Amino acid sequence: MCSIALLQLYRHFAEDPNPPPAKYLQIPQLLELLVQSLFKPGSNINPDHKEKYLFILAYAASVYDEDGVPYKNDLEATKKAVETAHTICLRASDSHAELQVEIPTLFEFIKYPIVSLGVLRWVEYTLTDTSFFEVAAESSSLFLVLMDEIAACHRLQHPYILDLLKRLVENSYPMLEVHVQLELKKSLVDHLVQLFGCGHVLPVVDYMHWCMRMETLDQSLIRHFVSEVLSIVQPPYSKDFTSVFLPLVQDQEITGPLINSDKSDAVSMFLAECSRKSKKKKERKL
Questions:
Q1: Helix %, strand %, coil % of the chain (to 5)
Q2: How far apart are alpha carbons 11 and 9 in whole angstroms?
Q3: Contact 55, 79 (CB under 8 A)
Q4: What is the DSSP letter of 232?
Q5: Could you read off the pLDDT of 79-99 as tens digits, one per residue?
Q6: Which residues contact 96 (CB under 8 A, 6 or more apart)?
Q7: Which of 39, 149, 174, 204 has a CB 3.0–4.6 Å from the CB of 118, allowing a cystine?
Q8: What span, in angstroms and rounded, lies between the C-alpha atoms of 284 and 269?
Q9: Backbone conformation region of residue 215, classed left if phi is above 0, alpha if psi is from -120 to 50, else beta
Q10: How far apart are CA 12 and CA 23, in angstroms?
Q11: Which of 108, 137, 110, 135 is nearest to 121 (CA)?
Q12: What pTM was estimated for this model as a whole?
């Protein structure tokens, strides 16, 4: 972000006794620029301007106007949360061991939507860096657990989390041995299930349905997804859910190994429930 523009914004909103309405800062493109400046690894912020970045981002995220009066009750707490998360992410970019120690602190401040956005962007930049899995694949779980916490706290972040998980699942990792790649992708599928459990149901299942049709994932991964979903869902199932999930369950190559001889398994019980519901629907029409 241009330093001159930043200084002008700071003067208007921090030093002017009658600042403009906060809505003029609440522009998605501006917020994204501020978040990138503070949370993108390797971003070069002039140390003299860092406090101004923190202030403007916190102001945009927490201040609202009513009858022309800016309400700043949450400004200082939001600024502290953004600053703490920024400092942790900055240190952890150089030492992933630092992140393990600071996970509880990040969990505390991720409850602020703007902090969750910044941390999610940091996780995205880190995990999509082509060199990350060459040198630090074992640390990926630390970043992914942050993403799970964001999913649990902020429904509006769900589409962004799904988009990131898609990219990670579909990536190739030639630097890793084949069995390590498969374990990594199985872990990513577990995080898709976690996102499913947080309420982002249809988009996640629809994506796995697409993976099945396009054959973009190993069948064992789709089987793992089906098994995990069946362990957490209960009837009655919605029409929309059944329409996208049933084809996965009906595919014998995917679910055949999950079925036992006495039909007491989760696959058979799900199919029986869908069949019973379909019969009842037909009977009502007669």
A1: 75, 0, 25
A2: 5
A3: yes
A4: T
A5: 999 999 999 999 998 888 889
A6: 136, 139, 142
A7: 39
A8: 23
A9: left
A10: 13
A11: 110
A12: 0.94
Contact by Cβ (8 Å): 115, 62 = no
Cβ neighbours, 10 Å, residue 44: 7
Q: In the 8-state DSSP scheme, what is residue 19?
A: P
Cis check for the bond before 236: say yes or no (omega within 30 of 0). Answer: yes
Which residue has 């927490």 as its token pair? 62
User: Which residue type does 226 have?
Assistant: V
Give exposure, 193-207, as e/b (b: 16+ Cβ within 10 Å): bbbbbbebbeebbeb
Element (H, E) at 70: strand 69-71
**CB-based contact 33:26 (threshold 8 Å):** no
| HSE of 71, CA atoms in CB hemisphere, 13 A | 7
- How many angstroms from the chain centroid is the CA of residue 244? 22
Query: For residue 22, how many other CB atoms are within 10 A of its CB?
Result: 19
Q: Summarize pLDDT for 116-153 with one digit per residue, the tens.
A: 999 999 999 999 998 898 888 889 999 999 999 999 99
Residue 238: left (phi > 0), alpha (psi -120 to 50), or beta?
Answer: beta
pLDDT band at residue 4, thresholds of 50, 70 and 90? confident
Per-residue exposure over 101-115, b if at least 16 CB sit within 10 Å of its own CB, e if not: ebeeebbebbebbbb
Establish how many alpha carbons lie within 13 A of residue 41's alpha carbon, considering only the half-sphere containing its beta carbon: 18
